[in-house]
User: Fold these one by one.
Assistant:
Number 1:
Amino acid sequence: MIFAPLAGAFLLLFFPRTSETAQRIFSLLVSVVVFAAGVVLFLRFEPNASFQFEENLLWISKFNVHYHLAVDGISLLLIILTALLLPVVILAGWRSISTHVRAYHVAFLVLEAAVIGAFSALDLFLFYIFWELLLIPMYLIIGVWGGKRRIYAAVKFFLFTAVGSFLMFFAILYLVVQHHAATGILTFQLADYVNGDLPTGAAMLCFLAFALAFGIKVPLVPVHTWLPDAHVEAPAGGSIILAGVLLKLGSYGFIRFAIPLFPRAYTASLPWLVVLAVVGITYGAWVSFAQKDVKKLVAYSSVAHLGFVMLGLFAMTSLGVTGSVIQMVNHGLSTGALFLMVGFIYDRTHTRMMEDYGGLAAVMPVFFALFLLVTLSSVGLPGLNGFIGEFLVLAGAFPVFKTATIIATSGVIFAAVYLLYLVRKVFFGAVNTATLEGLQDLSIREIICVLILGIFIVWIGVYPSTFLSRIEPAVQEFLKNYQLWVAP
Amino acid sequence: MNPMSLFPEIILIVTGLLMLLLEAFAKRLRPGAWILALAGTVLSGWAEWNQAPGSFFMDSIHTSLATQGLNTLLIAGTFLAILFAPALLKRDGVVRGEFYTLILWGTVGMIWMVRGSNLLSVLIGLELLSVCLYVLTAYYRDTDVAPEASLKYFLMGAFASAILIFGAAFYYGLTGNILILKIPSDGTTFTIVIFFLLAAFAFKMAVFPVHGWAPDVYQGSASPVTTYLSTLPKVAAIVVFIRLFTLAGGDVPIKILGAVCILTMIMGNLVALAQRDVKRMLAYSGIAHMGYLLIGVVAGTSEAYTAIFFYLPVYVVMTLTAFALIGFLGRGEEEPHTLRDFGGLGFSRPFSAFVLAACLFSLTGIPPFAGFMAKFALFKAGLNAHYTGLVFIGILNSIISIYYYIRVVYYLYMKSPEDRDLPAGDWRVGFASLTALLFLLFFGVFPDRLLIMAQNIAGTFLGGW
């Protein structure tokens, strides 16, 4: 699954520059094949075993670096989410991306390979390589195909992420060297470092380096400022991938790396992290409400939603962590779909200001219906996916952090307020301008895009066990290990 | 006495002479001179690789696995520099055979620096190299900047050579011999001698505080010259530097070098941030990279030397290619190479721009390019030798450097094109860029082979030669 997109990207380079339709179809085929592989992976996955489909090859013998990949229930879902979003992204850019088409698709395919690699790597070195590898294509996607202030946004994105990851790199190196000095074994395997016996101070610093790198990606307040810029300026496809997948790398990084590597340092800093998560929820909600720009509103709502993800994770209860993982997937679907639809309407009107819209429900009924579905899922209406995630998170977190959870619950209400406010502004009221009256409703291609996501939104909402049954064993094991690590 | 031991040098010198003769008597062949020069380097590289180890000419020069490996690197770098040159020379209308003669002879000088086992042969090598470089710097004599750069370089370089000679004379006066390995490591007098010698090579490496000439000279000399000037002499100089530094005993030299290392990194990176001229920026980035390399020298373990000898070829390829492509994509040597000139080239000249971007990412240390592996190996060696602070400063500096490297990339891909003539494509540049790109990618993903070679070189190097 990693090499298919890379090979596709390489072949795509040889397509003649003018054959844009062929390039689009080819990239779509590649991404569909990858998704099909993902589905096969999902079906053959055994819910009750831990890591599966393991590949472990010696890669760089001098440093004893292994090409070590495996998936468990947590990474499985995120990988499938990635593979699902990519065809949507390519379809979404079918008409709106008209410059440098070949490069656009090459960048996305490379990005997909890097993300899937990062979600399945079990070797610190390998993980870091994939983690950094996705910087370059994302940087180019924002910077080349983005909006007016794209360069500012792209550079900000790159600098924020790279600062975090260079410090994380230092922490990895430090860990490896200490381990080498203590045991005489040079290794980068994650399993060898879990709950290592570093002195408390050093462990704390290393944990902070990891937490900073992942916290920037999530993004936790106060290092979230790159996110609204990047989202607003990125093309629709870029926003979808950014919100849908890249942010999840941060929260996934906590589960897979930061917490198992330094469980005690994590426990010690837990109160602060919870505060940050709750601040993220309320702050994100408040700021969203104040936005006039539709895309910015959705971007800040991401900050709030990811706050829920982190809160559920920090609760360290079975319900909370499961909810957190399913909420990662939900956020990828709902927010991805929101960005997608904002992109559709932007393609038609070239404005993102709410005041320029009004009464669209009458002009574009199909669009309205789908938008409402997605919004309600994001708000957390029972029967749709958002409800499952948020409910599990709040139920899981309440026994542990009562006050924090109560404050966080207000975030759910705010989410309803600002998202429904958005819907009211855009879809109801009078049709203000002549341009709005003449708008075409969604085309078949666009409807398919949304429906792909919509199916999963409803599926998770109605029958979540398909997915929960895969997540839960992995979460149980994670928690069981955690209890062992922090036990005195 | 074994003339065979001089085979690589003889081939280079004879090729250079042949080209001078051609230049004088067969001017029609000028456009093909580069082929002859390339053939010379290939032959010489082959001869170098097949040398027998040993000591020759009354211990004046030495051949070992280490010198063979490093000299092959120097010759290969020369090959790459020559391959990039003809397109630029043709564009600027200065196609003359002596350009290659000077480059080839300069390489002979560097080979002698690496092989020399007494101070005299090292000195002769350094002077031969320097004289060639002074002339090369002024090679575009019709521009305003080149003669100025050359004069600056000459004045400063002569001063550095004088310091070296002074140190050597001091040593000879004290002991009556000039063999490098016989320099005793104890005693203040000898520490002073070594400092004199080190200072001279530090100058050629352009480390703080003797770096001031580098930006002016790199910017002033024409791009086909800068490619050569900014990379290979640094390699030769750092090899001699390490050799001498291992002789200096005690803690004090290490502390001083640590300070120099920190200042070099910080100065190089901070000043590079402020540059508007890309060539000048890369000059400062080159200074910063020498700072990173000094972490390895300070650490001084065999792991660190392995990392250094891995870093050197990677540094040569990425910096050389970056300078060459900046020259190639720029407006010409008369004009400054401002960032603006590179706007939009990512799509009008996709391949060269992509290779340039790859070199810059590699310089930043972002996988999957070899620059990342090199930095990784170096920092790891530094940490293993318990220089945590030094490595941490190195990481912070890499963070600073991200900004100025990616600034070039965003001009390439995200700014709209300037109204200017695009460079005509050239297959030699294309081929050289492809070679560089494959090198950076291959050793970025599969570094094992180069690492093992570097380890062997470090082994022989530490064992005496």
Number 2:
Amino acid sequence: MPVTAALSARGLSKRYGSTAALAFVDLEVGAGELVGLLGPNGAGKSTLVKIACGLVRPSAGEARVAGAPAGSRAARASTGYLAELFRFPGWARAEEVLALHQRLARSDGGAAEREALLARVGLGGEGGRQVETMSKGMQQRLGIAQALVGEPRLVLLDEPTSALDPGGRRTVRELLVGLREEGVGVLLNSHLLSEIELVCDRVVIIDRGRVVTEGPPRDLTAPGGVEVETSEGVRRLPEARREDVPGIVRELVAGGAEVYGVRVVSGTLEDAYLDAVVGRDE
Amino acid sequence: MSDALAIAAHSLREAVRRRVLLVVALLTAAFLGLYALAAFEAFDSLEPAGGGFVPIDERALAGGTLLGLAMFVALFLGVVLAVFLTLGAVRGDAERGLLQPLVVRPVGRTTLLIGRLLAASAVCAPYVVTVFLAATLITHAAGDFTPGSLVVPAAGLALGVVTVVAISLLGSALLGTTANGIAIFMVFATGLAAGLLGQIGDALDVDSLTTASSVISWIVPFEALYLNGLHALTADIDGAAGVIVRLGPFGGASDVGAGIWPWAVAWSAAVLALAALAFRRRDL
């Protein structure tokens, strides 16, 4: 029996007047899959995420969350969401924020769930702290904890690490890996390509409302040749691949060169992103 | 309903923690202090009945006028409170990023609005009743004056501010925070102007003015409820004093009929339904 996708979008389009924010986007996030969403500002990433969680109605097409139409009560019950620009009431304590969301999400996890979520995002023992006394990074962590209330099947994170220091980013990476192991589908919208490259199973690049390329990060990153350090300096062989390395070394040694090191160069996700987005403009 | 109550409790907690209620209590205490001063001074300066050219019950005149004024102030303060508690409920909170985390939960947008209505009403309705009853007690203590009715004016004030809460919620779904605040006070001023028009129409015996006043006061029912309450307050004051006090401050007293009660309730429900419709159609 096939497992229902955490998020499935077919022909999703959104127009604001004469502007097409999204045009016929197909996207799927499987259970336990981490999908990174990349694209320049105004590409339609946030619109896609907002349609998935029911904040924006599509002009055409359909999105389903865990099998239910996006925006329906059943879909919202299966969704956790952290907005790019969110705020919690400054007067509320972290625990009160989570308690309200537990009640609205109909979670019966109680204090144990709240404590576990706070600990998971690195805010253990901070439940009594007022939001207005928290740093931006702490509020972002609280936002992530809030998104995980009620054990959602789909988590939509819109720039979740923008305010975090390197330690906080690592915490979030570990959390995302944990969610994958629990079978939660995650759609991660971020400009931090290195983050996405490190944790995501698949990357979808959007530009001007359309999906321009998608695939696992390793498939999107093109090989960058081989660098060989010899007694005569570093030689770059841009067309060479990993399989060519033994032959290259053999040939160099046979020719009297001394080989000190070999490095297989691979392209980065940034290269792939720029090829997909900037390359379209040229 | 449990979700609406959760939202209402959250909003009430906000009002308490942000010390909105404390500030309101302090300012209201200041108003009541000034009112007490004015009431005692007014009653102390009364001359014995029958001293003038036309015999007037000065005690009733002073009591009715003072309580009519207190009723207007209670309504005005209640409207201010209602507006500030709700004017940014939809677009304002969405622009600040407060609304989105709540709306994506499996709680309907209509439920969210009902929660906000319940919270604001739970603050504003008891508030206006308390201010009015406190003013009544002060007036009684200062001049031994008791109004013809307490229930009708108090209930009218309470339902009046609930109608304003509903308008403010509708405005919050359609307009930005500042624009909504301005719009609500314009609507409030329109109601007052309608009362004054009716007063002028009565004085000059111009039917078209009184009809226009009556129609407008039913379109914005807080005004009709206020006029009705003022009428109940002064109904048993006889003679010249009765004529004068029924002109009232900011609009003459008027018996608008029992139909105003179900009308105001239905009107509030309809306005809230419109707000819910606008909210449901809004992309956030």
Number 3:
Amino acid sequence: MTEAEAIRLFKCLSDKSRLQILKSLAIEDMYVERLAERLGITAPTVSFHLKKLADAGAVSSYKSQYYMMYSLKKDIFETSILEILQEESDEAEVQEQRDAEYRQKVVDAFFEYGKLKAIPTQRKKERIVLEVIAQAFEYDRIYTEREVNIIIADFHDDFCTIRRDMVGEQLLDRDARGYWRIKP
Amino acid sequence: MIEQKVPKLNRYFEEQIAMCNQRSKKLLDDERTDEAAFEKVKANVYDIFRTILSVAVKTSKGDPDAVRRFFVQKTEQILSSWVTAYDKAKQHNDTVKMCLEQIKLDTIGEIKENFAKTWEGAE
């Protein structure tokens, strides 16, 4: 388990309702409504907690007849805390993780369901956003300006600004034939 | 009578906000941080509509119909955008967002009902 995974799991566990859900699942697999009834909280709240627990790798789900059943991922809980503490983390890896977390934070803040909510004003953040959009372009392919605009418009209406900035940030290049994605 | 309806609604908003804050504190003390945050979300919704009511009163210059129209129109506008947000979350199977949007929708539903009861009932 990496440090980031351990932190996510511990954060997730530091909530009484989630602990009670896990305690219930330690007895047997259950579905949302049953957990809600057992714990005296609403079904949407149980779903909310289960999503967080699933993201932290603490529970998994499977379909059984009409119900989505949830079960405890016992292997996660068989890891001892000492094992987690003894795991070495080198500085480069930590830095890489920090960068990835920052990147994810920016992506989460500026994108909603794959659409760009606003173009960031900070250059560092805009670069991250443009890199995400650049992933929609294939390498070794020439795109017409219209094709570029259509791809960018899937993310944001202001395709002119984004297209220009992607060229400025050297994510795309262009000549008389059209545009192409620059390899890093 | 607008002189009775507005204070009654204001009292309702204040009481609901106080209750949400109380429940939030209790949940926090019980180490249920996310559920405590849900109560804060509810309190914020009540606060938004308390503000809308005060703007409605200020802009309508004592005309009860204008207050009602303003309040109902704003409520419908907000409700429609929250329904869209919920549907979008549902479409993307975003359980966390769905839960938060559901709380907002439940609260706005309750406010609508209470407003109608207070406004029509006092007449």
Number 4:
Amino acid sequence: MPYNEPSPLETRVLTRRFGLPNSASIDAYLATDGYAAFRKALGMRPEEIIEQVKISNLRGRGGAGFPAGLKWGFVPRSSPKPKYVVANADEGEPGTCKDRLLMEYDPHSLLEGMLIAGLAVGARAGYIYIRGEYRYIIEIMDRAIAEAGERGFLGKNILGSGFDFDAYTHTGAGSYECGEESALLESLEGKRGVPRIRPPFPAVVGAFGCPTVLNNVETFCAVPSIIRDGGAAFAALGTPKNGGTRLFCVSGHVNRPGVYELPMGFNLLRMINDVAGGVRGGKRLKAVMPGGSSCPVLRAEECDIAMDFDSLAKAKSMLGSGGVVVMDEDTCMVKAVMRIMKFYQHESCGWCIPCREGTLWLKKLLVRCHDGMGRRSDIDLIGELARNMLGRTFCPLGDAAAMPTISFVEKFREEFEAHLDGEPCPFEKSPAPVAV
Amino acid sequence: MTFSAELEAKFTRLVKSYPAGRERAALIPMLLYAQDEVGSMTPELVEEVSRRLGITPLEVDEVISYYTMLRRKPAGKHHIQICTNISCMLLGGEELWEHACRKLDIGNKEVTADGQFSLEEVECLGACSWAPALQVNYDYHHNMTPEKLDQLIDSLRKTH
């Protein structure tokens, strides 16, 4: 493994080919049941395919956790318009680095998942929208598409079934916002990545004004095993309403950071301590962002929790995109949220004023607080400003910036207070000002 | 404006990837692939791409201004992009960034006088579990330290 050693605690379904020699090649794929699920799906009715995905309790792995089978079911098959399948490979949520590995080591599983989605909704073309920085991944996917075409798994009359399907890669060019589904579709059409007003949702009016199934890479990669082994088998791996496994990207202050495939509902403390080797240098755990930077932070004492969508929602956080950012006792929480806000301010597309202005003001306030120049009233002002952004934007970026901010202020108020009155940051070894 | 045969073939393939009448969809890939060859979004390139896709140069410009990877000015031969976002920050991304600025004596989005190197502080590169991370052009370098960065810069200098 070129990235991190696997853990014996993993349940390897989507990552089972990782580490096999030449695992990205179609020969390695075919030798390990590759395209068997697609062959099976060719003999199924579209409703049967969608039913299995529903039974699997597969929920969107991009962050929102929407049930994939339900999403597929929204596509009007009877529409006379062409339909499209779009894979979101824009992976930009800070803390997240899993789709990259899936495409690097198992690109054909993505293609097979998209083919099965195409059968289910009657689509004949699929686009893989890949962030521009992942150029080598685009090359891997292009090779996989060419190989699949040569072996008759893409193109016209696939395996003599009468089903036609073509797949294409499409590069982004640097924009977090394009990971949001409607902005992604705008970008796919050659425009600025600003969100669309919904409804209509992409299932009805998506790519090129046509019905579209749009899912995260990991969601599509789960589909072959669901069709091959049945939705119930996949569902049984996880917890109720949270089927299967998930790729968790553990980063930050742990001994063995890495991407690990674990069953839904895996305990977060166990993930940190037993899978990722515990907090580095014998330090104590302070906080975790459990699903990427958009998710409200958990204090150490909140981390004895099952990692599934519903348990995290109950704890007023989110499972998000699977990015588990671990912070030890020496981490300055004001600095952490300041850096995150700098990111959201940079990435806000500017379409909705509460997000465009809110992220800028929050950044200014957080920088001021971290520099020791904040006023006591700023602490409440940060929370109030963030709360005023909630639900007031066309896409979730405004909420994604506001929600963690509110949680940092609520849960680590004492650290904000420790930065008042011109005091240097208590966590800074050398009080050098941070360039923002 | 002429491009290499390879890039022309890519353009032809790209335009055919989208539904008839929706060729504009090729715009962002065309711009990024062209930038790799031309170096930056020159007025000639904007003109040429707009002509090929049947849209106005203004429509091309408004797309360029949105995407961070599309540059108005050329970068150095080795464009070093250092992530300082949360996961990288926790493991020394900022120190790495400051070290790079000192070492090359340039700031964000600046190019060294000899045109060999440029620096950019970037947002999450999708390498969080192998932080801190950076990219030189499109190549990833993981688990970086200031010492490893020194070695990398020295080796790139030798290759010219």
